[in-house]
TrEMBL record, chains A, B:
This is Cupin domain-containing protein. It comes from the Bacteria. It comes from Occultella gossypii. Residues 40-97 form the Cupin type-2 domain. InterPro entries: Cupin_2, PKS_Associated_Protein, RmlC-like_jellyroll, RmlC_Cupin_sf. It holds the Pfam family Cupin_2.
Amino acid sequence: MTEDAVDVNAKFDLFAEHWSPKLVARLNDYEVKLVRIKGDFVWHTHEETDELFLVLDGLLTIQLRDRDVVLGPGQLFVVPRGVEHCPRADEEVRALLLEPAGVVNTGDAGGDLTAVVEQI
Amino acid sequence: MTEDAVDVNAKFDLFAEHWSPKLVARLNDYEVKLVRIKGDFVWHTHEETDELFLVLDGLLTIQLRDRDVVLGPGQLFVVPRGVEHCPRADEEVRALLLEPAGVVNTGDAGGDLTAVVEQI
């Protein structure tokens, strides 16, 4: 690997906390973030944007109001804008997120799990 | 996995050709594509957009005019807009691409390797 390439596994070694996405790359006005997920998040909606989850490790359930979307390693799902969702994982999941810059992780819900995104 | 989730490996089983990105998901006005890479591409530039390569399998060299960026599995690189580049792989690489809808794979270069993007 060479300068300014991003090694995803090496980036995951830099943090341990759950539900706190870390910025690792920018693409125009979009951001690539890595996140560790464990337990239940909060139900929330992003009214202004779709949100992509790509699972790298573990089993992630994205609860929607009408069904659950279950993702394993190498599986991805785009939550459409305006669709209420709540991620959940019994065991730790490592996932890559993609969304426009400035999207707040808790969307319209706010609360204690709202994270300030740090670049690593 | 559940309906409308995307299994990356299963999608790769649907095509074999090189240098022909396949659309597997949309995120707002961006597209997630999968591509098999082998051999040398053409030098080209995307004047209007950055372009993200995430290598899933194999070893990809993204030649830039001033250096090579070498990516293995789980490594990503964003080619900045306006930067001339030429991907190359001695053995087959499987990669995920992310860029705005409508980006032409050969950028300003055109030619025989220009692909029409099919959704799979």
